[in-house]
Each structure stands twice: as C-alpha cells, then as structure tokens.
Known about the structure:
This protein is an alpha+beta fold. It is about 15% helix and about 20% strand.
Amino acid sequence: MIHAPVLVLNQNYQPLNICNxxxxxxxxxxxxxELMLNGLGDIRTVSMSFPKPSxxxxxxxxxxxxxxxxxxxxxxxxxxxxxxxxxxxxxKTLTLDHILPRSRxxxxxxxxVVSACVVCNHKKAGxxxxxxxxxxxxxxAPPHPDPYALFRHRPILKxxxxxxxxxx
Length: 168
C-alpha cells in the first residue's frame, strides 16, 4: 500500500507529477508539501499515525520545462491512433514505415515515420508512397509539446478528478 499513487500539485495547484505514498510522506515530513486530500486512510506505526495522502501540494513553485516528446514506436502509434496510415486499418500488429526509406537517406524523425500494417509495409517496401502508388491518410508531424502527457495513458483516481478537470 505504500507504493500507491499520489498526485503531486505545484504551488499554483497545477498537476505536476505522480509519486508513491512513501515519497509523499517524505515531502510532507520535510515540510516541502502540504496534504490536500487524504482518501486512503492511515498508516500506523508503534507510536504514531500518519494519513495516507492521495493528493499533495508543494509549498514552493517548481518551473517545469516543456519537453518535446521522444520519438518511439509507442509515441508514433499513439499519434497515428493505432491505425495504418496507408489503408486506415486499426490493428495490433503495426510496424513503423519510413516515408522516404532509410536506404535512400530518409531521416528517422517525426515527419518521416508513420505506422503501417504489415501488408502495406511489405507492399511499399523500399519505395516512396508515390512510386508504390499508395497515399497517406494524413501528413505526419511531431506532436505538440504537452506538459500533461504524463496523465494521458494511465489510470486517474476518482479523487484526483477535481484537480485534473480536462480529463473526463
């Protein structure tokens, strides 16, 4: 239970991170954070009792830089909504395809990589989409920087919803 997730808010109540109860208790004990919501009960020791935090807020402001998302298979699949960018089929057996093949000097970057089903990837092979007489469903682009990407693909606890209103 000490590894349960805890929402960490910045001083201005902006969601900043998710940590575990152990780390949250350390921040509370050092006076670096305050308890906002105790939805999990108590932790009892021989001589003391501590609330199990569900949401904490930092006492000081943390400036968090907006970082460009790293190019990875998973990020490409999420960007392309787990669909082949040539035929539109949604499948679990997607591959990465370089629009301008790497064998021809094509770069490994957001604007040159798309998700493709196995059939379309083999059909296109080492050609460009024009040469293979295939058309992209949409032009690939890097995703916009998202400071809340941390919360997009993970379970959000019910008691956190008032602090993360944009997630329905």
